[in-house]
């Protein structure tokens, strides 16, 4: 975006198709602002904007630096002007730079990149967050200033809170269908398992507590992850927005055995060990109505299609009626159109 002489002239205006678009104020006439709108195509279009349709009768300001260029911040709490348009454009700017994670205080916002980003979840990245936020964290346990937002930040801080404070930790993962919730939960659990595996190292120097195999998973987490295909077979279905949409909620509890702080201090440890001892997985709010009906271009649960598509010898073991059957053989499965 071109530089402007005054940041007050850089605003956002509503658009029926695009939601919000950046614009420059050209002039004001009472409660009408004449603006030049920057279209996604690169075209600049003049519009008259009714200020009565905006909160406080003013247009939301863009967050621009002294040179008039749009700011892109890792923590949106630092945005000078915080509103819907500013949040969306900040997320868009980071997404275009292949930065799917953005911080809002203690909250991490993830925008699904729908592509593999090299190094985003590598061993080096895992080690960096564990070292900065667990083993070598400041007195308050918060050393996020030098780190880019990441889901590893959430799991590292949860681990440290569990080890240092001895308090239960809760991580809430929510979002629209297809946002990446299931994958995020897998990443968090695997990372927490890799952190706790370093608890067996007895070295005094915190910087040497990082495991040489941070990507390793405990048997407990492996079993939880291995249960996903089974849960998804009975609880996931194709929708117009997501071919593998979870139609149920899931509550996973990882149970840690936390070392006594006094015992840890006697061994020269700054952070007590947390040994993953078990896990509980509960499901709820299954969309039961989908068993007997679904919208056009959608499907019922995967398990029914897996049964129809199974090998003949498997079908015969389950039910002879499946032999020679297709999706159209069953009214509740049927076609997806």
UniProtKB/TrEMBL annotation:
<keyword id="KW-0518">Myosin</keyword>
<dbReference type="InterPro" id="IPR027417">
    <property type="entry name" value="P-loop_NTPase"/>
</dbReference>
<dbReference type="Pfam" id="PF00063">
    <property type="entry name" value="Myosin_head"/>
</dbReference>
<dbReference type="GO" id="GO:0051015">
    <property type="term" value="F:actin filament binding"/>
</dbReference>
<dbReference type="InterPro" id="IPR001609">
    <property type="entry name" value="Myosin_head_motor_dom-like"/>
</dbReference>
<keyword id="KW-0009">Actin-binding</keyword>
<dbReference type="GO" id="GO:0016020">
    <property type="term" value="C:membrane"/>
</dbReference>
<comment type="similarity">
    <text>Belongs to the TRAFAC class myosin-kinesin ATPase superfamily. Myosin family.</text>
</comment>
<dbReference type="GO" id="GO:0007015">
    <property type="term" value="P:actin filament organization"/>
</dbReference>
<dbReference type="GO" id="GO:0000146">
    <property type="term" value="F:microfilament motor activity"/>
</dbReference>
<keyword id="KW-0547">Nucleotide-binding</keyword>
<dbReference type="InterPro" id="IPR036961">
    <property type="entry name" value="Kinesin_motor_dom_sf"/>
</dbReference>
<feature type="domain" description="Myosin motor">
    <location>
        <begin position="71"/>
        <end position="337"/>
    </location>
</feature>
<keyword id="KW-0067">ATP-binding</keyword>
<protein>
    <recommendedName>
        <fullName>Myosin motor domain-containing protein</fullName>
    </recommendedName>
</protein>
<keyword id="KW-0505">Motor protein</keyword>
<dbReference type="GO" id="GO:0005737">
    <property type="term" value="C:cytoplasm"/>
</dbReference>
<dbReference type="GO" id="GO:0016459">
    <property type="term" value="C:myosin complex"/>
</dbReference>
<dbReference type="GO" id="GO:0005524">
    <property type="term" value="F:ATP binding"/>
</dbReference>
<feature type="binding site">
    <location>
        <begin position="175"/>
        <end position="182"/>
    </location>
    <ligand>
        <name>ATP</name>
    </ligand>
</feature>
């Amino acid at each position: 975006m071109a530089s402007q002489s005054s940041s007050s002239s850089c605003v956002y205006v509503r658009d029926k198709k695009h939601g919000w678009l950046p614009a420059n104020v050209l002039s004001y006439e009472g409660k009408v602002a004449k603006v030049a709108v920057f279209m996604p195509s690169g075209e600049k279009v003049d519009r008259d904007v009714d200020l009565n349709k905006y909160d406080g009768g003013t247009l939301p300001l863009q967050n621009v630096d002294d040179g008039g260029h749009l700011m892109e911040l890792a923590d949106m709490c630092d945005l000078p002007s915080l509103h819907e348009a500013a949040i969306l454009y900040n997320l868009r700017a980071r997404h275009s730079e292949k930065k799917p994670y953005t911080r809002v205080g203690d909250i991490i916002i993830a925008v699904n990149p729908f592509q593999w980003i090299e190094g985003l979840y590598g061993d080096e990245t895992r080690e960096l967050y564990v070292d900065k936020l667990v083993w070598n964290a400041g007195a308050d346990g918060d050393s996020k200033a030098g780190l880019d937002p990441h889901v590893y930040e959430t799991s590292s801080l949860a681990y440290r809170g569990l080890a240092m404070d001895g308090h239960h930790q809760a991580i809430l993962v929510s979002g629209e269908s297809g946002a990446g919730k299931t994958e995020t939960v897998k990443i968090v659990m695997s990372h927490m398992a890799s952190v706790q595996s370093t608890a067996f190292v007895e070295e005094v120097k915190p910087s040497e507590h990082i495991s040489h195999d941070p990507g390793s998973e405990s048997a407990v987490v492996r079993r939880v992850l291995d249960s996903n295909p089974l849960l998804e077979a009975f609880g996931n279905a194709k929708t117009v927005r997501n071919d593998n949409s979870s139609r149920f909620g899931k509550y996973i509890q990882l149970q840690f055995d936390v070392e006594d702080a006094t015992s840890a201090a006697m061994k020269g440890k700054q952070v007590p060990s947390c040994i993953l001892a078990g896990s509980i997985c509960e499901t709820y709010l299954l969309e039961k109505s989908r068993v007997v009906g679904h919208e056009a271009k959608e499907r019922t649960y995967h398990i029914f299609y897996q049964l129809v598509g199974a090998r003949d010898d498997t079908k015969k073991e389950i039910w002879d009626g499946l032999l020679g059957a297709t999706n159209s053989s069953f009214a509740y499965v049927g076609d997806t159109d």
